[in-house]
Amino acid sequence: MSEPSRLLVLVGSPRRNGNSAVMAEAVARGAADKGATVAVRFIDDYISNFLRDCRVCRKPNGECSIEDRFRELFFDDFLPADGVVFCTPVYWYGVSAQTKAFFDRTFCYYAGSYPDSAEVVARMSRKRVGLVLASEETYPGASLGIIHQIQEYSRYTRSEFVGLVRGFGNSRGEVSRDPGDPLAESIRFGTSFFDLKYSDYHLDTDRAGKVWPEKGS
Asked: pLDDT tens-digit profile of 45-79?
């Protein structure tokens, strides 16, 4: 019997009961109900400093010298995960500083100057990736920069960017009043996360003429 898929839900908001957190918990609930092993982590519990110059900051044994819990988050939760959902508010039309710091800090361990970088690169690669956004503004362009960043991160790591959920609200938990019902959508996203069809064709890709098989076939 195969092991259950492991999902890490990373919350980039400092608000423990904010809109990003509420949607993150909904994703986690859906994934757990489907049988996945789920961990929800608030990034600012683990990161207290930005990336520094690794050439002068790194310890003699290659380890990062920044004294916070990022290594724990990265090695114990992120690398073993089969899928990761990044949950962030839209701040200045980008991800939160906490979320950006998470991406930046990974450099210390996949850079060639880290002794086990090849293993880290292999374990960072080929994950399923999802995005959950909470914003006050509803117009589509408000999130395009973030979507592009996650898309390019996914392609860079040969991962599959399988989907996006957007919720609209400003005050804490206000997404629950969004007529689009992003909480229900977040639950569905979690439930289907490891089953969602992913396709990213190139011009010379061999492919069938249909996206979905005929019923009964």
From this structure: 999 989 888 888 889 998 889 888 999 999 999 99
31 lies in some domain? yes
CATH code, domain with 83: 3.40.50.360
d(CA 55, CA 24): 36
For 76, how many CA atoms within 13 A lie in the half-sphere containing its CB? 9
What values do phi and psi take at 146, rounded to 5? -70, -45
Other C-beta atoms within 10 Å of 201: how many? 8
pLDDT digits (tens, 9 = 90+) for 122-131: 999 999 999 9
Cα gap 70→79, rounded to integer Å: 12
| In-domain check, residue 197 | no
